[in-house]
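Task 17 of the worksheet. Students: predict the tertiary structure of the chain below and write it out as structure tokens. Keep your answer in the requested format; marks are given for formatting as well as content.
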Amino acid sequence: MTAVAVGVVCAVFARLAVASPDLLVPAMDYGAADCSFCHLSPQGGEAHNERGLWLVEQRERRGVEKIDVAWLAARDARVAKTEPAPRARVRVADLPAIKALAADRKRTVDYTTAHGDWPAYGGGLRAHKYSPLGQISADNVDDLGIAWVWEAFDNHRYTGLSNRRRTPDGFKATPLMVAGRMFVRTAFSAVAAIDPITGETLWTFDPGTGDGPRPPVFGFSTRGLAYHRGDAGDRVLLVTSDGWLIALSAETGKPFPDFGVDGRVDLTKGLRRPLSRRANTWNYAPALCGDVVVLGNQTHDGSHMLRNWQENVPLGDVRGFDAVTGRQVWVFKTIPQAGEFGNETWGEESWRWMGNTNVWSMMSCDPELGMVYLPVTAPSSHFYGGLRPGDNLFGTSLVAVDARTGTRKWHFQTVHHDIWDYDLPAAPVVADLVVNGKRIKAVAQVSKVGFLYVFDRVTGEPLWPIEERAVPASALEGEKAAAKQPFPTWPPPFEMQGLGEDDLVNFTPELHRRARKELEGIRTGGLFLPPSTEGSLAVPGWGGGANWGGAAFDPETRVLYVASRREPLLMRAVKMPLSRNGMPYRIRPSGVDIDGLPVVKPPWSSITAYQLDTGEVAWKVANGRGPKDHPLLKGLDLPDLGDRWNAPGLLVTKHLIFHGHRSAAGTTLRALDKSTGALVWEHPLQGTHQDAPPAAYVAGGRQFVVIATGANVQPARLTAFRLP
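Model answer:
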């Protein structure tokens, strides 16, 4: 089997479904092509497949800390180690030359996209991923050509078989574009400034993260940066994977020496207990709100399995720092301490030692209100809550805080006592709506469970009623699942929720029979079915629904767009000695497939548009052709099924939706009709898209669209398109 590089190898880190790209080379000996070697997803970090579960079980049987890929010799044949098979090179188009305009460097910086820039990860601080630029439309999109391709200056760290033990996570960056320059963070936490017209590198900064040990979770990984304009000079705010906040001069790339201590802020310090670099990482773009930069962190999902874990489970507290000095100005405790609001929701004094409950994804800001919106995730352990009885505020909650003080303004918990890892995975969308003729300052949150939650962003009141409904109890020893969970009555969900007989795939009688066979003995039912010893099917699974690609919002039409995937997961609890991992059960989600086809009806990935003034679904389309050529589907006349595991970030412009798309045929940049979701154009890309949203900007009088590609064994690239 040739190792075609479309993702990270799926060797398993420690005891959880976390991708370990450092094990790529030995796994290639056994035919590893991507993360689906031992995970369900080509990107990894999701549930294990049969091979991944086998490796984990071998590790536990042998009583060692780390998996050795050589164990596969007992079950899999070795193959010749080869370089990744190259795809056809995508060529830069022969476009007429353009030059920078003086106005490009003089545009207003108000942290919106109104002037042709892309000054924040989500376009603006409100996380719209929207640009009002209208040069590119359905009438001329066929004329788009590649203006330039930029390759990361630190790709040398891992390209070539001899160097791949430093293989990073896929390149998931969205660049910034401000005042005539583009800025991007690499997987190794380095930063480059790029000429937006030519793709030429203007300056680079390397903090040294790539020379150190591999960070936890996804290792060397990236999402983005923040930008701040102030009297002390324009600065690019970098958070490194190994826990440093650094402010760089936008002009030169040099650190501001008076920021923090010697130009850096150590993010492992400043909380009620220190953060270990072995259990915490920082890959996501900081959130700016006024002169405060707001940071969360990504904690090791297996922190409860580390030695002496109850003594230092990593905290998920969110912090605000002065964007000019680096001084820590506030802390919001995601697990309330003694005497604080919500402390009573942590039984048996679990608040004293509990951790995680972090913000690992992007946040958003209403600069006029001075409020930051935090999508908080699940506590430890993600699938068993017997040691943390109660609802567990502010786990899996949307929390609004004052950007100046960190004071909680309001919150809404979307999952009580989360035992499914149903994190809020993406930035809340700050949206101004007109509901029943009344102007409403709203905030909309997409979720892994497939609900779209919409609130008044000033008060936290839901725009449409949310009901607390009874859900199944848990039969696991020590576990007390929440008796009720919140169900929005409107808008309708964008993803399948729970599983009934009518939800099983039924293209042919044989497929339907096999789907029923796969689910024999497994508990199925509605949303929020707890894990069980016989196995419970979670629909959606912990990968969504929506994921970190999040939603996009057109403030002119007030339509919200969200990409979603449909991947049920089996949640089976296995009784374990407490001495093994601190919990009485081991719960590892795994897939339930029919020779690679889901057991549920399609679309297996989709894009949904909501008219947010009314909450109605404007349209929904399958995201891609899907596996129509699968042997079990041969000869069937089927509509588009949706390409599995696609939930990309979307870019909305005046006329079109743009997104990266990966399938068995390769990766493309796609343009969709905003009013119908119909595909109107696509262009091949070099490298594999990893779900990062594209960005749009103007330079030299032309509108550009730029997108990142690069799976773990591929060079990290940005590809920019424009019209002639």
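Marker's comment: The domain at 87-722 is CATH 2.140.10.10 (Methanol Dehydrogenase; Chain A). Residues 6 and 711 are 5 Å apart (CA to CA).
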